[in-house]
Specification:
This protein is an alpha+beta fold. It has seven helices and seven strands, in the order ααααβαββαββαββ. The longest helix has 35 residues. It is an enzyme of class 2 (transferase).
Length: 263
């Protein structure tokens, strides 16, 4: 017969619970401080860099034409352009970090979400730069219902579909497909496949890391936080995400998600 816990044991457990709660509170406070620093303190120097770079360009533009067209001034303008590009890139990196932290802290409100409807919403939220592109979309019928937070799921899908669009830009006839896939019991799976440039499969292990890029910046934009965000969102839902590719033969991202409970 199980003996009731002693008063001393109960007090010890309460103390351990209090310490754990304090650790959680300390971690939350540290994250709040990080968000404050990233969203304000780090952006102020960037604003100075871009603003004063513009002022320097204006000063150089006011020089006499013979001087302004000189090799030294043109070289200085090139340096300013690189400085401005790097500052803007750092701003995008800060935005990516903020999105990662917010996704990890946002309250999770899981509910059954139709993947087909979520795909439609995500496509509508994609960059207008791709609105006029002739892309063949193949969204299969019978996509599963996911037990997911609708806002976080949309953020994940926007990243996946946006990546597929980005890496099919050099392709004459871009095609992106979304379809259900086989999964173990208690799971559902779907894939997002494109016929874009692909990547070296030997480097697939780094694909979902923060600031990891498999293509040169001069080829494709981005700072390497989108897929890290996808992984963070998937992990919060107990899901798994992976990618396979062939150089020049496209990429397939597979998402394995806990099944939504039956009605």
């Amino acid at each position: 017969m199980t003996q009731p816990a002693s008063f001393a044991e109960v007090e010890r457990l309460r103390a351990e619970l209090a310490r754990s709660q304090q650790q959680v509170a300390d971690m939350a406070a540290a994250q709040e401080e990080f968000l404050r620093a990233v969203s304000h303190d780090l952006r102020a120097p960037l604003r100075h860099v871009t603003s004063y770079g513009t002022l320097v360009r204006e000063l150089l533009g006011d020089l006499p034409p013979a001087v302004a067209q000189g090799a030294e001034v043109q070289e200085a303008l090139g340096f300013l352009a690189t400085m401005d590009q790097s500052a803007r890139r750092m701003g995008l990196m800060i935005d990516g970090l903020l999105a990662l932290v917010r996704a990890s802290r946002a309250p999770l409100h899981p509910q059954p979400v139709s993947l087909a409807d979520a795909i439609t919403s995500a496509r509508a939220a994609l960059s207008p730069d791709d609105a006029d592109r002739a892309v063949e979309w193949r969204v299969a019928a019978g996509l599963p219902t996911l037990q997911a937070d609708p806002a976080l799921l949309q953020a994940l899908l926007v990243q996946l579909l946006g990546n597929a669009l980005k890496f099919t830009r050099p392709v004459p006839q871009p095609c992106i497909s979304v379809q259900a896939d086989a999964a173990p019991a208690g799971q559902v799976a779907f894939t997002v496949q494109d016929n874009g440039v692909g990547f070296d499969p030997a480097r697939a292990g780094t694909l979902f890391g923060v600031f990891q890029r498999l293509h040169r910046e001069t080829e494709f934009d981005g700072v390497g936080t989108g897929l890290a965000l996808c992984r963070a969102i998937a992990q919060r839902h107990g899901a798994q995400i992976s990618a396979t590719a062939v150089p020049g033969g496209g990429c397939t991202v597979r998402v394995e998600w806990p099944a939504a409970p039956a009605d």
